[in-house]
Structure formats: C-alpha cells, structure tokens
C-alpha cells in the first residue's frame, strides 16, 4: 500500500529524497497543520527494510501522529520505526546509542534540538552515525528567543528541501484562512499599573501629559465590549470545540475560573477539559474532548501540548489567552 500524500507534501517528499541521496541532510519547513509527519511516514513506508529512528519532543505528539496515519490509511502502522523523545535520547549512554543502529533519522520539530540538553543528545547521536541520512520536519527553523539561531543551518547545513510560510499555505488553500478577532482583556490591569507610575513621576509636566493619554485610554475601555459580549458575537457555533492556550498551570486555573463569566451567555454548562505535560490523565482528557459530540460548548484548556504536531478534527476555533512573545508559538497555535 502506498501512502497517498497531498500534492505539496508529495513534492516535498521527492525533493527531500533527492537531497538525502546527495547530501545526507534534508529539512522540510512547512506550517503546522500541513501534514509534515506524513512525509516522514512515507519514508518509512518506502524503505520497509530500513530501520528509521524517529525523534520528537514528546510521545504524546508521536502517538497522535500515528492515530492520524491509521485514520488516513485504514490502519497502516510502520513496523520499521523506533520512536524516542529528545529527553530520553539525551540520557542514553554510548552502549544504548550503539544499539539503536538507525538507517535513517527523523528529527521532528527539529527547532527544538536547539535546547541545550536535548541538542547535546542529538549531536552525540549524529556524530556516532555521521553517514546516516537525516530528515528534519518543523514549522520553523529559527529559534527567535535564542539569539535567532537557525537550526536548519546548524543541523542541516542549510539543506532545505521544501519551505512554506503560514501565509503561503493559506493563499494556496492548504490551510483555511482564520477569522482573527483581537480583544485585549488585560488592559485594565495595565491601566492601573501605569496610573501608579504616573503618580510617582517627579515632573508635573510629565504627569499632566501622561494623564491625558491615560484618560483617553480609560474612556476607550469604558466604551469597549466585555469579553463575554465578544465571545457571544463571534463564537457562533454554540456546541463547537475550542482550544484555549494558557501560559502555565496558575494561568490555566485563573482562565478556567472565568468560564462562567465569559462563556455563560453561550452555554451555562460548557464542558471543560484540561491538558498539560505534567498531567498523567492528559491523553484521557484529550480523547474525551475529541469524542465529545454533545450539544454543549466544548472548551479544551491547554499548556504547550497542542502548540505543535497535534491536529484535531472539528475544531471551531482557538483562543490565544497566553501572552506569546515567540512568533513560532503564535503561528503554531494558529496553524
């Protein structure tokens, strides 16, 4: 059985295969949601007698990728793959690394290999097997908050078989353009902070000038809609599924506590789910969210876990609650 790829991934696969044969390294940089993992699975399928070592940030990501593969193919599962997380790889000694003996190496979400300890594990592996072809998959190669390091240069010597931006994927119809609604719910907190700073200013002229700006902001906030009205207006699918990205556990609990206030006008009894790395029941909650076909609003609060490599059918929208500096995470969440 030949795994059928979308045209953009078929083209990427052919280019990567040629580049691997010529240079031994090939990176595919496509946005989240475009099916990069299927390119890796096609490699596994095309060379069933070869041992493929698949490395990823988490078992959770790989497990859902396998589920998507089985759903797309009617049950196909590659038997020539050894999966490891980057965290587990970094703890392996030379004896265990020698036992891996891969014919191909796949670095999924390879921008994560720039992390200090994870990166050391990857470099040890690659130095032990310098002649093994390495395929990299990522939505971006640049680590924006790590001195703009480009992992395509560091790991693949700039050998990029295929590259596509999020905007290009939308223009080409590969990803659906989102309807993007911006609402800044933390303004009042910042207003109070700046009012305090203005009161502490030593110059009367500075106080007066800044006070005029603050007064204009205060009037604008008084006229602005509350988040409950914003959600009622734009969350038109009353029984829809929404992913809410949070910064950390404390922030998640704070956001969940606001669900009656924010979403009560849509559904007074929404179904709430949470997933985060330290939660042993995360996979169970994730699957329950996927399977929930009730008439209620479904809200999945998550920390990091769904930023990359995870795709869920039937999602009505995402709500970006976390303050996000990195454009990588921002684009992954949208993708």
Short structural description:
With 335 residues, this protein is an alpha/beta fold. It has 15 helices and twelve strands. The chain is 46% helix and 17% strand.
**Global mean pLDDT:** 86
Helix/strand-derived category reads: alpha/beta
Detail the poorly predicted runs. Answer: none
Q: Beta fraction of the residues?
A: 15-25%
Net shape: globular
**Count of individual helical segments:** 15
Computed CA radius of gyration, to the nearest angstrom: 23 Å
Tell me the helix content: 40-55%
Measured between the Cα atoms of the first and last residue, the distance is: 29 Å
Largest sheet: 6 strands, parallel
What is the number of strand segments? 12
- The helix/strand order is HEHEHEHHEHEEEHEHHHHEHHEHEEH
Report strand order across the widest sheet: 3-2-4-5-1-8
